[in-house]
From TrEMBL:
Sequence ranges of Gly residues compositional bias: 560-575
Comp. bias intervals (Low complexity): 547-559
Species in which this protein is naturally found: Vitrella brassicaformis (strain CCMP3155)
Alphabetical list of Gene3D superfamilies matching this protein: Potassium Channel Kv1.1, Chain A
Superkingdom per UniProt: Eukaryota
Name this protein carries in UniProt: TLDc domain-containing protein
Lineage: Eukaryota, Sar, Alveolata, Colpodellida, Vitrellaceae
Region (Disordered) residue spans: 545-595, 613-637
Length: 637
């Protein structure tokens, strides 16, 4: 890796060494002497053209001591660094940049500090390691542990430490002496001439590498722009600020022009780091002359919370919602491609806390909450049709429709692989200071707190006395109403009903023994679609029209095989039965689901066909099921 600095001295400055050699080799033929002088002339020309100084001996720029301490403006952060530390990696782009030859060509701020458009945390880490390398040449400079996939670190380590491959020099050019002393000396001189020619190619590569860090030649483009975030500053050049589509009309440019980064999320951890990473993402794309893709975004997030980084991208107009679609969840990018479905939170990355969940799903509706039980792999889906809002310190009850489904890891030999669990017209949420008390169905009646209660799934069961702000969504329980017409759907579970006084009779959903139907989650993901499409009034109106059409045609269809929703494009019903008319309620839908609710479920894309074939498992720390694409997709009207 370019980022590894090996011990050892790689030689003097190229121009100085080549000039000294040419002066000491008068015995070479005129052809070689002319060739070397031509190389030196071309090198000096390019250095001068870039604003550098060809002859350090006569330049004030080169009089600085190696122990001189420079104050650097590293993308808005002031970082002091000794010149000797910056030049510790011999032959690297960083050493070339601060050799003294290009001091006049460096961009500076209003206080005279040298601007380095580098992610500050990565640069500080690099300087610390270079200092250690100075003290101990056997110390190797390399990426910190855990940062190998963090492009905000990896890109700058690789770039600043890049050294053209001098180690590949053909040592055989220095042939051993086999004849007279004159022949040996001539061979040595020839080898040195070839080495200088190779060195010239390396030096030209170094000059090309540092060009993006020097003045561009356009004073307007080299001007600096800054934004302040909670007392910290982020700085870029105007050239980088107008590099995005729209140029000076882009939101990114406008934020820096007006020094306006508003709407910092309350309780956000390290928002300045998120803003720095978002700005660094733009700077790297500008230097590499490439567009910003979702891959670049995901590789630049580092350990910043998903929703905080998405906020930073949105602040700069980078469409964080689209770019932050992530790979590796229960629904992959392949499942989400072509639909307006957005993953809001991924608990294993964004955190399991109640406050993390509420922040991620703020104002989003409808919500599709996907859960996978630990150990068993049992899948649950809960649909909540309105935004989840905690209105105060006490438990809130909302008139909000919710629906739930489940799919066991080993579907029954008969019947569909995905089962309706329940529906509800109310949603209960824990307040910010206390939680609602529920009944533990696995034990004799006893108080049990939870964070969300929707459609017979209770999410976030906490220890007694634990406040909602400290609780997590990890523990859940689920149960089914065994008194309804769909009670036969649960007979294969082989569990007796559990009677809860005042609440009727329920049949538990066992997902992992011996706990029964209380279970812990291996993963929780939350998705939402475009709110305008899921309007309940629209769904009810469409359903009324379809029923009127069905009555006019002489009744509803009764020929469908098992399943609860009609087939959409490219999929089947629950059991592979015949198709139902698009706007007509399937005859085999459970009676306790109304026409409008079935239609709403269609439009929420929780499609009937799950096709529970065993998918390939991902070899990750947390293995996730790669569900069929037909599980969630847009249903056309």
């Amino acid at each position: 890796m370019d980022g590894d600095v090996q011990p050892g001295h790689l030689g003097d400055d190229f121009l100085t060494a080549a000039t000294r050699w040419a002066a000491q080799a008068p015995q070479l033929t005129a052809r070689y002497i002319d060739s070397i002088h031509s190389i030196l002339t071309e090198y000096k020309r390019q250095v001068t053209q870039m604003g550098g100084v060809a002859d350090l001996g006569t330049s004030a720029a080169g009089t600085g001591s190696g122990e001189e301490v420079l104050e650097l403006n590293v993308s808005g952060a002031v970082v002091p660094a000794a010149r000797s530390t910056l030049c510790a990696a011999k032959g690297s782009l960083l050493a070339t940049l601060f050799s003294g030859r290009f001091d006049r060509a460096l961009v500076r701020d209003g206080s005279g500090r040298v601007l380095l458009a580098v992610y500050p945390a990565a640069f500080t880490e690099l300087c610390n390691q270079l200092q250690a390398h100075r003290w101990d040449p056997n110390f190797h400079v390399r990426l910190p542990e855990g940062k190998q996939d963090d492009m905000a670190y990896k890109y700058w380590f690789d770039t600043l430490l890049h050294n053209p491959p001098t180690a590949r020099r053909n040592q055989s050019a220095r042939a051993a002496s086999t004849g007279s002393a004159g022949v040996s000396e001539a061979n040595d001189m020839l080898a040195m001439a070839e080495k200088i020619q190779e060195g010239m190619a390396d030096e030209l590569a170094r000059l090309e590498g540092i060009k993006p860090m020097l003045k561009s030649g356009n004073p307007l483009a080299d001007q600096l722009m800054s934004v302040d975030v909670l007392g910290s500053t982020v700085t870029v050049t105007k050239a980088a600020a107008w590099s995005l589509p729209g140029g000076a009309l882009s939101i990114f440019y406008s934020r820096f022009e007006h020094n306006d980064v508003s709407g910092c999320p309350i309780g956000a951890a390290r928002p300045i780091d998120a803003i720095r990473r978002a700005a660094d993402l733009v700077v790297r794309a500008f230097q590499q002359r490439r567009p910003i893709t979702d891959t670049h975004v995901l590789q630049s997030k580092g350990d910043v919370s998903h929703w905080v980084f998405q906020w930073a991208l949105d602040v700069f107009g980078l469409d964080g919602t689209r770019l932050m679609r992530r790979e590796g969840g229960m629904l992959t990018n392949e499942h989400l491609r072509g639909i307006n479905e957005v993953r809001h939170t991924w608990a294993s990355l964004d955190g399991w806390r109640w406050v993390d969940f509420l922040t991620c799903v703020r104002d989003a509706a409808p919500l599709v909450i996907m859960m996978k039980a630990k150990d068993s792999g049992h899948l649950f889906v809960t649909i909540i049709t309105a935004p989840v809002e905690v209105t105060g310190p006490h438990t809130s009850i909302h008139s909000t429709s919710s629906f739930s489904f489940h799919s066991p890891p080993q579907p029954p030999s008969t019947g569909p692989p995905i089962q309706p669990l329940a529906r509800s017209s109310t949603l209960m949420l824990a307040g910010s200071a206390e939680m609602e008390r529920w009944t533990d169905l696995t034990q004799p009646p006893s108080p049990l707190p939870c964070l969300i209660a929707a459609a017979n799934i209770q999410i976030g069961i906490a220890a007694p006395g634990q406040s909602a702000s400290d609780a997590t969504l990890t523990n859940c329980q689920a149960f089914a109403d065994s008194s309804g017409p769909s009670a036969h759907d649960w007979t294969y579970w082989g569990r007796a009903g559990v009677e809860v006084p005042g609440d009727g009779v329920f049949r538990p959903v066992p997902v992992s023994a011996p706990v029964g139907f209380q279970f812990s989650l291996d993963e929780l993901e939350v998705y939402s679609g475009s709110a305008g499409i899921w309007d309940m009034e629209h769904c009810m109106e469409a359903d009324r029209a379809s029923r009127q059409a069905g009555q006019a045609a002489g009744g509803d269809a009764a020929s469908n095989g098992g399943g609860m929703m009609p087939e959409g494009q490219g999929g089947g019903d629950l059991s592979g039965g015949s198709h139902a008319p698009r706007d007509e309620r399937p005859s085999n839908a459970p009676a306790h689901y109304t026409h409008e609710e079935c239609d709403l479920m269609k439009k929420l894309k929780v499609h009937a066909q799950l096709d529970r074939i065993e998918p390939p498992m991902r070899e990750q720390e947390h293995q996730r099921v790669d569900l069929p694409r037909s599980y969630i997709r847009r249903m056309e009207d």
